[in-house]
Amino acid sequence: IRSIVHSDPHVLRVLRSLRVHTKRIGQEWSVGEMVAAAGIESFANVLIPIAAVLGVAFSLFLWWRVSHVRVMSVKSRGTGLDQGLLGSAQAEEEEAEIKVAEIQAAIGEGANSFLFTEYRSIAVFMACFSLIVFFLLGSPGGFSTAWTTDKKGNKHAPILANGIFSLVSFIIGACTSILCGFLGMMIATYANGRVALEAKKGVCPAFATAFRSGAVMGFLLTSFGLINLFVLLLLMRLYFGSDWDGLFEAVTGYGLGGSSIALFGRVGGGIYTKAADVGADLVGKVEKDIPEDDPRNPAVIADNVGDNVGDIAGMGADLFGSFAESTCAALVTASLSSIGRDHDWTGMMFPLMLSAVGILVCLVTTFVATDINPAKKLSDIEHSLKMQLIISTVIMTPAVFILCMVGLPKEFDHIFIGDPTKVVKNYYVFFCVMSGLWAGLLIGLTTEYYTSNRFKPVQDVADSCRTGAATNIIFGLALGYKSCIIPAFAMAFAIFVSFTLSGMFGIACAALGMLGTLATGLAIDAYGPISDNAGGIAEMSEMGEHIRERTDALDAAGNTTAAIGKGFAIGSAALVSLALFGAYVTRAELTLASTSLLDAKVFLGLLIGAMLPYWFSAMTMKSVGKAALAMVEEVRFQFNTIDGLMEGTTKPDYSRCVEISTKASLKEMIPPGALVMGTPVITGIFFGTHTLAGLLLGALTSGVQMAISAANTGGAWDNAKKYIEAGSSEHAAMMGGKGSEAHKAAVIGDTVGDPLKDTSGPSLNILVKLMAVESLVFAPFFAQHTANGLIFKIFGL
Q1: Cβ 252 vs Cβ 328: under 8 Å
Q2: CA distance 188 to 531
Q3: Cα 535 vs. chain centroid, distance in angstroms?
Q4: Of the four listed, 30, 67, 445, 570, which is most buried by Cβ atoms within 10 Å?
């Protein structure tokens, strides 16, 4: 075997791909060693698809359990004789169930209609942007179709192939993002009425149904995202062969496609849901003094549809984008190290194996919430959801250690840009992942403290409502600003530890660690909108005050978990953006010295980048305001012109409000999307790679803080309102409950916070990620054609 290795370089490459390292060349190879090496690669190729298949199977199992909750259809309505034979109570219950089915169908129809309309608009964008991707990545070599060989004898695929495969990756990532959002919306609209019906039996059945429904989305998204990327890599590997630089450069299009769709999904869905929410609240609650989700409110169906298209489909696409980008960042940085140079397939697949292990851990953890220790009373709900995060984090810790020992070489190098010979040990990566995993938990617990009405910050905001809306807004803004402190320190600690130990690869692994329990995070995040919809259905179908009390408790906990989910998304966005920045610096052929803040071009980009989140937020906030203005006018018009509407004898025109939200969201999502997608391309071409590097850092620094503040401020205002409405404590009862002046002030605060927490805030983390991955994808073009910027070149600067 030793003589064959020395005589045939191809055999050497094969052995390297089996994790037989170069330091063993010249030693005797035992059959056992080669079998073990081959087994390790097989381990990676088996673990990833098995975990993905188990995740899909488990989600189908949970869907099956949710389907056991019976929803009566209109066709099953009894005859007049049947109604006479039934007792009055049973007849009323059957009538309520039929109303639930009708309302559920209306919400599902509205959500489907909007998503299909939105996806048709996005398809046009995908077609246009695909051409840009192909042109910018295929043109640096004049659309060359010839394989090239570098000085070391390594073959590289044609430039044209990079453009084609990047285009394919972009389309597959975009389609996967669309699929994840659509499947999430399907299960949410399927489950919302069932949660409302289960609330009649008690808190435990309703909670279990809502959580199982959220878990269906969590496992489907993570499993599809993982298996699609893995299969894409296997197929592209057949063409690229030993050219792993080209392979992992092309696969970054997967993350670009995912985040592109996430941006439009978050912005469009956020504008839709908040336009309806603001219109329904301002006219219904404040002016007409009717309850939330009252069927007399013309905007109530649009509001509930918005929960699904914004908080479910948009959020699903957002977190899929985080997963795709963090994985691609880790793959690119690993391919530049000795792991990629030695063609260590198992080591390269470590980021995907990390996500696979996360699916298995979350699968075990889910049974704790639904079967082993479910919430049995109202006060148990938040605790049960919080324990999901804690348990999954604890179990993930030893699992990651084992994976690092098995899946990574003991030592590897070429990780640090400034010191390529510095050695990284496999257990260093374990600490990198742990820094992200536990920082994510700390961010989640901090978010809970600042947004849950069980704790003092939100209670202080509620107390400020006694003196009016102005003091409520002042207290809420202060809470949001203060809530940035601990997450900023947590992210700074994770970045310092991971970069010190393993460079930019360590930061990418920290981001994956923060998303390691993504299936659980998605489950508790999707749980919130599903519970919110269930409360709306219970109110519209007149199921009774005690049922609404239970669904309100589920919804209040859901507001907190939604804020926790946003915290995870924002924290991981910061880490993955920094990792993508490191990969961009390498691909754009920059050095640490050339990206110094003392460079005028870099500092110029830094200032502009720090401004972009403010510009973007202004656009999205104004878009919500314009759409909400049209909604308020329509709701007022219907209340003033439809006879018998306030008395409940006439139905409002729900479809008109749905139409207003749909048209407004599709029209208003284009300018913010164009700003985010166009800025890196314009900056890279006209101002060069140095200015673009500064732009990415500036957007990251200010965008993360703004996103945390906006999400937590809005969440706190929402739960302060629910705290006053519930009146479950002596302090809350002093506020006067629903309809009081304090409650009206809380509603105004909640209305102001709606676009902050559900439109601008969640979209900002996509802004920083998307600009970073877009810059990485187009870095080869910028480096070859516009490294110094056309503007600076024209003026000789």
Answers
A1: yes
A2: 9
A3: 24
A4: 570
For 371, the token pair is 């079967």
Residue 423 backbone zone (phi > 0: left; psi -120 to 50: alpha; other: beta): beta
For residue 52, what is the enclosing H or E element? Answer: helix 31-67
Q: Residue 637: phi, psi to the nearest 5?
A: -60, -45
Strands (E) across 242-384 are located at none
C-alpha 314: how far from chain center: 8
Q: Give the pLDDT confidence of 448-497 residue by residue, as tens digits.
A: 899 888 889 999 999 999 999 999 999 999 999 999 999 999 999 999 99
156: phi then psi, degrees, rounded to nearest 5? -130, 140
Among 698, 795, 311, CA closest to 532: 311
Q: Is residue 699 a contact partner of residue 767, using CB atoms and an 8 Å limit? A: yes
Task: Tell which residue, 493, 358, 356, has the closest CA to residue 431.
Answer: 493
Residue 683 CA to residue 288 CA, distance in Å, equals 50
Report the Cα 286 to chain-centroid distance in Å. 33
Residue 18 has pLDDT above 60, yes or no: no
Q: How many residues are listed for the chain in this entry?
A: 797
Detail the DSSP E strand segments found in 49-183.
148-149, 155-156
What does residue 419 show for φ and ψ, rounded to 5 degrees?
-140, 80
Sign of CA dihedral 492, 495, 496, 497: positive
The H-assigned helical ranges of 139-202 are 159-198
Question: What one-letter code names the amino acid at 720?
Answer: A
Answer whether 519's CB lies under 8 Å from 495's CB: no
**Degrees to nearest 5, angle at CA 397 with 332 and 316:** 60
Report the predicted TM-score, pTM, of the whole model to 2 decimal places.
Answer: 0.85
CA distance 471 to 287: 21
Side-chain-side CA neighbours of 522 within 13 Å: the count stands at 38
Q: Please give the Cα distance from 169 to 374 (Å, whole number).
A: 41
